[in-house]
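Q: Fold this one first, please.
A: Sequence and structure below.
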Amino acid sequence: MPMPEIRNENGRQEVIPRDTAVERISAKGLRRRGDVRSFFERTTHPNSAIEAAAALDHSMRMGMASLTSGLSPVSLGLAVADWAGHLLASPGTLSRLTTQGSLAWLQAMHQAITCQSVPSTDPRYADKAWHAWPFCALASTHGVAETWWKEATVLRGMEHHHEDLMQLLSRQWLDMLAPSNWPWSNPKVIKTTFENQGANLMRGAAHAYDDWRQSQGLLPLKPDERLYRPGLEVACTPGEVVYRNHLVELIQYTPTTRKVQREPLFIVPSWIMKYYILDLSQHNSMVRYMVDQGHTVFMLSWRNPDESDALLDMQDYLQLGVIEPLAVITERTGGIPIHTTGYCLGGTLLAMAAAALASSNVVHSAPIAPLASMTLLATQLDFRDAGEMGVLLDEAQVALLEDIMAERGFLTGHQMAGSFQFLRARDLVWSARMREYLLGEPDVPNDLMAWNADVTRMPAVMHTNYLHSLYLHNELAEGRYEVMGEPVSLGDLQLPVFAVGTLKDHVTPWRSAYKVKRLVHADVTFVLTSGGHNAGVVSEPGHAGRDYQLLLTKATDRRMSPEVWKQRAPHFKGSWWPAWHDWLVVHGSGMAPARQLSPLDSVAPAPGEYVKTRYRD
């Protein structure tokens, strides 16, 4: 495997021994890049025994990681041991679960014989053929197993993290064994194979072979990915890159109205994926919609990192990705207050920056205009209940990730995408593979699918900072996160907040996004919209089936639980985008002549160069 490389102070690349890279990347207590390098210099000539032990440990962990698809066997083993130990120490519970299981199986078999019970809400068994014998028996018994395991993995005395992990693992295992995934137990596959004389299986085998070749780098991009190219079919809203540094390009979009809202709108997307989730096709581009409503929109485009960026940390992302662009926007708009928006982790980073700007202890070198408002789209600030992604993360898992990142200096986009696929394996793996490999039906290409396949890397030090500070230690919500050596508090934020949660979000559960009300001392307009983490945000006007709830709570109002908020918030049909536009207008100061772009302002035409960088790893 190649050694990871970093860029030293002179701009040249240097090769780091792999065991030393592990030490460097796992220096979680060292916040600033200079401190990290100083620490590394002190470990340049380690004791030979320590060096040999570290190398052996690293090789052992990497070998285990290859067998467990990157999941920590220590974390998995502790969860299973916790569950098994409490089960064996609870004979009454063991007897009850055994009896319940036996009765449930007997009842399921009776219902299956008469074909009375097929899981009606499970889309895997929506086809009418599942109501015929023997397929109804397979579907009903599988449903019984899911119900039993969901109860059996929650035992009194278990660590909550281990309960969540055991539930996740049992669900993944049962999703894999679902009768809908196999050609001999899926009636739709059997019928299709008979009608097509096996041609569907031949097409499926070709799809599987192409997927394997692409995973090995033997095949170029899939045709559906080539149909949606940034700057041609997606990310097409006209504009100019007006600023570029090592980490980001700042895009200013061309106005389409003679007058615009006086306050500009600055959007910080997540660095995990490319920015154009918010500028997809013409009909569903949030950027185009906001420009057409008369907003001066600025958007960040994150650089796709390489080996030379291994030592970039969270402070670099904060300074280069938010603070510097805010200073540029301040200069370009004459110091007018700025509406700010963050999506997913971009919102987390934006909140850090806003808290730093609100703190009297953090000093900035360049003038930055006041923030007029902050919009958070599917953003998590309190990571105590971080959803399914948090279930996979503990100290052992993060340590293994540090070893994996030390191999090359970054976490590959495909490794990150694999984590999301694991969490939603039923939809993204098993159901998709069933359609593609068994029915011979390739996924219908669309812009969102192509964006989802356009994965990005994450620098090793930044990623380990982020995992330790936020997921493991929840420093931002608890007021212990440091910016420029000073802790910042979200409680210092008094600017109006517009926060969006989505009902089916597995990355940022809406109840977690709702916690912003508890963390900031400000008026919060919270929106709960239909859809998931991406589709709930990309919810353009005219999109069929969209609806949302919206309710303003004042800073002085009594706190409401998420459930009480959901009961009281009124329902609205359609997209929440117009409500957001109206909210920005209310919190603005009127109209001004449109800010025209000059050729002298341009570093490059939108969408810039950073968004086009793709790696085949």
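Q: Good. Now the second chain.
A: Here it is, same layout.
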Amino acid sequence: MRSRLTVWHGGPVWVSKDERTTALAARDGKVIAHGDEAIALIADAADVIDLAGRTLLPGFGDGHAHPVFGGIETLFAPMRGHETLEDLLAAVKKYADDNPHVSIVRGEGYDPSLAPRGEFDAAWLDAIVPDRPVVLRAMDYHTAWVNTKALELASITATTPQPSDGEITLRPDGTPMGTLREWGAWGLIYEKLEPLTSAQRMQAITAASDAFAAAGVTWAQDAWVEPDIMETWIAGAKAGALTFRANLAWLAEPEGKWRETLPTFDRMRARVDAEAPDFLTAGTVKFFADGILEGGTAAVLEDYCDCPNKGIPNWTREELIEAVAAVVAAGYQPHIHAIGDAGIRNALDAMENARKVHGEIINPVIAHSQLIDPADLPRFKELDVIANFEPLWAQLANEQVVLTIPRLGEDRGNRQYPMATLLHSGTKMSFGSDWPVTSPVPMEGIGVAITRQTDAGLPAEGWVPSERLTLDEALSAYTAGTAVQAGETHLWGDLRIGKRADVVLMDCDIHAVEPLAVRKVGVVGTWLGGVRVFG
């Protein structure tokens, strides 16, 4: 990607957490000058951007997202934004009525807190769409809600054995309720769905690009890539549809499946390197150590309060240790989804073993890092493990109040998302969105990280206020922190001379607004390698 000489001037330029300037110049996709030296180039510049007092930042890096899934949501029934079960059902019915030709009614992203314990009944969907399967996935992407026709499609009955890596929620009479938790359960239905067409895939990747460009995201970690998603990425890159760069993480699965797929990762990586080198890398392998707290599937050390069990570890500790070591030996970065304190301990144990066996690990990541046992906090720094957080989650929103904290109890509930504790202990930290689980807009997550409050400003003192970050710390986690995770600090993550001109222009001086207003700051321009892709 090539660009003409561009100069940004007339406002604060946040080069990094420790450096500021007043102007920036870029040529051929790289930063070449700051301050007065940049201003001196204005006469020769093809593009001159007056910041008008607004902040210029490095492009944001999203350390954990599912961009293709985010784009796919736009293809089906609109599930987001419904505040009552009645409104959600009305949206499903309208979509079904408007699309009588669709053989399976699909939707992604409903709010699981709209039903007690997040348990939704197939009968509610049967009442509005009795003639076709309805398959909806919750915004957590770990839970699905289906109707009776969908259960029949997957041959799920009262006699179906419970999967080892999932849960078929049952009514008191033993029949399937219609709520399916984790891939082991809802995968029985999703594997029956028709694959997307090439046109749908292009629509999805274009929608993802548009969303990230508008949010100021110029790099993202796709945290769950299988062969069909890889094809979508490559097609999008070849078609010129991408407005951001991405690293792809191949999915490793338990029960020995990873041994069969590990050799294919090299072949897929070679294709990515050969066919889309300007936009894509593929150096990571993803593990799901456990599920989610709000669904009661995250692996915890002590029983949940409302359902006496310890969740669903997707891997045994022993197999996770073995698989992570094999992935590291093959030259990949391990990226482990671990949310419960038992899941996180198993992930740390796997990282520790890999270091003992192989010495070096490529920027190991534990994603989400939600509930960490105090004894394990120092291990992040000791093992040089990056703690990836989705900061938007560190607020007392519905999922926390209705689902998570009742399952954990107050003491464990208040130990969630120890961002400041880890950062101030010297742990490397990155931020992400987990989009489409939640919003892809970094400023929304940054606003929560510095306040630990909801949009309404609750609680007044912030939720666990000792874990609040400063604005500069939060900005750094979404820029330099993700560049560390990507292993590309020599290329991006700040706006020092020689770095890529991946920049984002905000709509104000972000250091001059009140903390609670930071999440509302908008993006007015995004540049990738000096080329404007939004605004």
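Q: Anything worth noting on the second one?
A: The chain has 18 helices and 22 strands.
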